[in-house]
């Protein structure tokens, strides 16, 4: 028996639509710009300071547990990326950051083929906080309910990432660059490797390529260790076009790292090994270079004009109740611009509510999704024709 056609849709589809829902398509986004990250924070309703604290605490939890389980760095890289993408989609009051971090690590273990049970992950996290005499085994009843919650979050973790299993490992390239430019292995090389682990405490892995992150880590390590910086600059230095990156992108990544080492030194690996004055001096030098070449703080940044409906906004103006309700309604209707699926006729779906308004399909090729949208869209357009018919009116007797 064929399923009944729903009478209405809450996904933004026009009323009066006939036929089945065209389904939603979510294209995997391996890179996310800073502007999109800020829009997601506004939509999820979290402040910048609170977001920084939750992000660093969650990544620190993943790092400590993966070390206790002796997992490789590649699992750590994938888990942190899943953790960041999950938090961009879901509101903070829907989950605990520890549950999200555990689910991200659990999912990354499957993706990187370093399998660990959810109970083993929770057990390792528990044993890190207690004395050796109070440590438990992974089969303890204490982890039963929590383990089921982690398994339930696994599907949401995959949906938030768009089922994109492509991962980046900049640590390998960091070691190759240090060897290529003949930098000291014990000082510059090890420091650059630790910086490459700390970089995942920022949003740089979502914004930059592998080569950009690796070059930024080697650059910052060279400056901190007072090594020969001229080896990376000049004609014999790094050819950014060869690595498919630009100096502006590297500087953006460096400034992200300096923000981390300035405000969250205690939660990093090398933050407390160097005085804060060193990071401030490096920031001043990079700001001077950015001013000289007219680099903006973030690459691919598009400045939006504030919408005031033709009225010039002034500081201190009170917002009326009607205007506030309008803003709240627009904010509630707005969807995350990067990770939420879009149907062929423009309606937006909800990640995590698959099958409620329509089927969600995940694709890696944006060209294929665009072609399908162009093919399907004409079938859902409402076409109307007007006819003029002359009607004779009967004469009154």
Mean pLDDT: 81
Q: Identify low-pLDDT runs.
A: 1-17, 307-320, 323-327, 329-338, 342-346, 349-355
Strand content: under 5%
What structural category arises from helix and sheet content? mainly alpha
Apparent shape: globular
Largest sheet geometry: 3 strands, mixed
Query: What is the H/E string?
Result: EHHHHHHHHHHHHHEEH
Distance between the termini: 58 Å
**Order of strands side by side in the largest beta sheet?**
2-1-3
What is the C-alpha radius of gyration, as a whole number of Å? Answer: 26 Å
Number of distinct beta strands: 3
Count of helices?
Answer: 14
Which terms would index this structure?
397 residues; mainly alpha; three-stranded mixed beta sheet; 3% strand; globular; disordered N terminus
Can you describe this structure?
There is one protein chain. The protein is mainly alpha-helical. The protein is built from 14 helices and three strands. It has helices at 34-44, 48-68, 73-89, 97-111, 118-127, 144-160, 170-180, 185-198, 204-207, 210-224, 247-263, 276-293, 321-333, 366-376; strands at 24-27, 342-343, 360-363. The protein starts with 23 loop residues before the first strand and ends in a 21-residue tail after the last helix.
């Amino acid at each position: 028996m064929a399923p009944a056609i729903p009478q209405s849709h809450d996904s933004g589809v026009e009323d009066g639509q006939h036929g089945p829902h065209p389904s939603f398509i979510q294209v995997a986004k391996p890179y996310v710009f800073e502007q999109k990250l800020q829009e997601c924070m506004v939509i999820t309703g979290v402040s910048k300071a609170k977001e920084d604290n939750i992000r660093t605490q969650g990544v620190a939890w993943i790092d400590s547990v993966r070390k206790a389980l002796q997992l490789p760095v590649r699992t750590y890289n994938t888990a942190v990326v899943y953790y960041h993408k999950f938090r961009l989609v879901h509101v903070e009051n829907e989950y605990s950051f520890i549950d999200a971090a555990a689910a991200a690590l659990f999912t990354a273990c499957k993706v990187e083929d370093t399998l660990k049970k959810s109970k083993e992950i929770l057990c390792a996290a528990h044993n890190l906080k207690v004395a050796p005499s109070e440590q438990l085994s992974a089969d303890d009843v204490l982890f039963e309910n929590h383990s089921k919650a982690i398994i339930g979050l696994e599907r949401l973790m995959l949906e938030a990432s768009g089922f994109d299993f492509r991962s980046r490992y900049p640590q390998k390239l960091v070691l190759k660059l240090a060897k290529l430019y003949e930098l000291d292995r014990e000082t510059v090389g090890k420091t650059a490797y630790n910086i490459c682990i700390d970089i995942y405490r920022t949003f740089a892995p979502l914004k930059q390529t592998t080569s950009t992150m690796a070059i930024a880590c080697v650059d910052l390590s060279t400056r901190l260790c007072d090594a020969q910086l001229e080896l990376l600059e000049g004609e014999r230095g790094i050819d950014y076009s060869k690595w498919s990156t630009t100096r502006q992108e590297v500087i953006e990544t460096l400034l992200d790292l300096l923000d981390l080492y300035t405000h969250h030194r205690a939660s990093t690996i090398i933050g407390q090994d160097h005085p804060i004055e060193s990071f401030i001096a490096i920031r001043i030098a990079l700001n001077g270079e950015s001013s000289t070449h007219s680099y903006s703080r973030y690459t691919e940044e598009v400045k939006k004009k504030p919408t005031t409906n033709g009225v010039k906004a002034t500081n201190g103006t009170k917002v009326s109740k009607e205007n506030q309700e309008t803003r709240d309604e627009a904010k509630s209707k707005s969807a995350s611009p990067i990770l939420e699926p879009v149907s062929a006729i423009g309606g937006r779906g909800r990640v995590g509510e698959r099958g409620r308004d329509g089927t969600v399909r995940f694709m890696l090729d944006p060209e294929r999704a665009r072609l399908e949208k162009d093919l399907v869209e004409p079938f859902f357009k409402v076409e109307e024709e007007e006819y003029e018919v002359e009607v004779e009116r009967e004469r009154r007797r």
